[in-house]
Amino acid sequence: LQQVAVMRPELHFSPKKNWINDPNGLFFDGEQYHLYFQHNPHGVGHGYMSWGHAVSTDLVNWTELPIAILHGDAADIFSGSIVVDQENTSGLGDGSTAPIIALYTAAAKDDSNQSQALAYSLDGGATFTKYAQNPVLDRGSKNFRDPKVFRYESSQGSCWVMVVVEAIERRVLIYRSENLIDWTEASSFGPQAATAGIWECPDLIQLPVAGSDQLKWVLLVSLNPGGVAGGSGTQYFVGEFDGFTFTPDKHQEANDSLAFEQLSQVSWLDWGRDFYAGVSFHGLPVNQQTIIAWMSNWDYARDLPHDGWRGSMSAARTLDLVQLGDGGFEIRQRLNGLPESPVPTSTVLTGETHIELSAPALVELSFAGGFTGQARLLLHRADHSVISEVTVEPSLIQHHRSAGKVAHELYASSQRMPLPEDSTELVIQVLLDHGSIEILGADGRRSLTDQLTGEAVPAYGVLQYSGSTSAVVGVLPLSEKSLER
Ligand code: FRU
């Protein structure tokens, strides 16, 4: 495959070299955010899976560190999570520092088995020792993976909880443990809702409901293929969790249809092509729950042009819930680590407006209530060809990306994202970096993430507007310099 000049993102993590996929073991140690990730130390394809490692103090600027957990001869290190074992329940601490415990999937290289294994770090997460009695959880299954562990606290006491998938069965299994080593099955969830693809990388998190003291539980389930935009995608379920069982507020029959009409009935974390395997950070309070996803799609991830490195992570997003008129709940996302609102702004008149725009930048478009008509934001290369086109209508946002340097037949595509009917004033945020676009709309209740692989700085933007009410556009340049604090 071609090696071409692929410009590096500035506001997103990308590896110095070689392949990456899912974020793993995200945790905040009180000072630094740790991002581990699926990584091939030996090449730009998926293989020899190990956990790479990077740290950041602001979730925007990342420093890559040496590999934290290296693959073995017989097994790869697949996705998983990290917790800090404050009370040394595992007994793996040295008496002075709390051990940092990674639970990951040991994936046999001959595909004969996937089981959950443990590794611990006594040096702040830099290096890990594999537990001598691995695996800690083995069902004799070939597709049992992606353990996400958290501390469950209740008036009856606390324990460790793991959510993990039987991928082919489209089931999330819930296990409990006192010591992170001995695990007991408590319940299972699924198949429900979108089931056209296998289920991967689950997460179970508590989120605050905006404007109330209420907390709800949310189960994130990535699936591949069968995502709403095609290929890899992430659905979510809102409900209750009692330490043993997750009960969704509404039951949804399993549906393996790939038709947009069916898929769009499901709750999606993102409506774009490139937002997969997103999971939350351990160590953040419930009102700061933050996720990062792999910004790619298994449909074509292995075939994208590269420059000795391949893959990047999404921007970090902080989540909460909004309660809807019908009593249901929706996830709301906010970009984390970036300024809240762009300045300066200018009012857009009907017709065509030329916009000074080069990545990285945050673009904000707002339309007054009662807006009808259409706005189109066209991102142009210097040769005037169009990289990407965002179309905003009162009830729909669409994103079209051109093939650019990517030959893969599934890459050039149009993504649709219906907007909530009850949104009044419409504000759209567009985060542009080299190689990606992330569109948040309707107060963060909708998000659409697409790679723009190999694309550098758009030379300029054009906004075509034919709306009935006044619209405002703002562009905030986000070069590293403007983000210095
Ligand atoms: C998701 C996934 C996980 C697995 C990992 C392997 O993208 O397939 O289920 O653990 O990638 O790299």
TrEMBL record:
Belongs to the glycosyl hydrolase 32 family. It comes from Glutamicibacter ardleyensis. The keyword Hydrolase applies. It holds the Pfam family Glyco_hydro_32N. This is Levanase. InterPro entries: Glyco_hydro_32, Glyco_hydro_32_AS, Glyco_hydro_32_N, Glyco_hydro_beta-prop_sf. It comes from the Bacteria. Keywords: Glycosidase, Hydrolase. Residues 12-323 form the Glycosyl hydrolase family 32 N-terminal domain.
